[in-house]
Amino acid sequence: MRLTPGPPRDIDLDTVDLFDLDLYGTGDPHAVWDVMRAEAPLHHQVLPDGRDFWSVTRYEDVCRVLGDHREFTSERGTVPTHLGQDDVAAGVLLTSTDPPRHTEVRRPLGSRFTARAVRSWEDSIRRSVTRFLEPALDGEVFDLAEKALLLPAIVTGPLLGIPEKDWEELVQLTAMVAAPCDPHFQLGSEAATLAISHHELVGYVTEWVKERRRSGAEDDSLLHHLMSVRPGGAPLSDREIALDGYSILLGANVTTPHTVSGTVQALIERPEQYGRAQADPGLIPDLVEEGLRWTSAACNFMRHAATDVPVAGGVIPAGAAVVAWIGSANRDAALFAAPHTFDITRPNAKRQIAFGFGSHFCIGAPLARLTLRVFFEELLRRFDSLTLAGEPDHLRSYFIAGMTHLPITAQKRRTP
Question: Against a cut of 0.90, is the pTM above it?
């Protein structure tokens, strides 16, 4: 989707289709969300097939929907592709489970992802990022968006216990889950693409666990750690391990590439911001936070109302699906001044909710922040400037805001 919206225009919210893939592939959803926040902060849409959902677009309301599992449950599905058919893995898959079960499974995993815990991985991540950037050093056209799809696997594959020979296939499968209607990843229909990718990913983790059990091999990888989690004192079943491993693979691979690409595009379009970060590396953590706010790669999550819930001057009826638009919340002028301005000195950028909010806040956020910080440290250290070498192609997805192509050229820094 366009991350810098066009000029304001008349928008008829009665005819807006928030599931229109063209709105994200070639359109301007931020212009729509601006009007929704101002005129219809609680919006109801009925799809042609009869499915319906409510939308919240203001920061405060998005945080409420994502943060209160008693009013808004995750146990019927958390992404719009589940709309109208409950998630069959609800109550088992970590992302589709409410507390207290969610907390019991998440807590021992989260101990591996604290800021202190991931700090020990920084040298390894830096070597991976350096390896990733090397092809851009020759000054030839470098398709950042296409290449960046593999970046999380390069960084986290060893930490997860995934061998390098499998990285490319798993990245392709996770991209199919995130954008099942994008022609770069689609195999047949949307439903077929989702079914194939889900089956292959769950099957991969299932075989990984079986092989570990057969061999008795032990390591310090996250997937192996998942095998030792005992919520309530009982070990996870193999199905639970497979589903949660599937969720971890998605979380590791899906959003970071698009945060990288979208932030780099913003810096190319605003060379003064690039120069400011390069002159003062102490601004790089702020650049990361503003990049997360600006890109909002996971642009929404879905919940279902447990009861009739008053929100934003209206009522979401019991059982109804509600989509919380993170991409809109992170551009809410009630919290972020001049929200459509990319500013790496923004004082409150860290209040962005690109990693979600509440009990389902992204478990890998400290690792993602570390990866992004190291990436931009190395990028700014190596290159004097970056230039667009063609038009970007935006992902056709109403769930993930990203790009499939961002051709750039990089001018090597003369005084590193």
Answer: yes
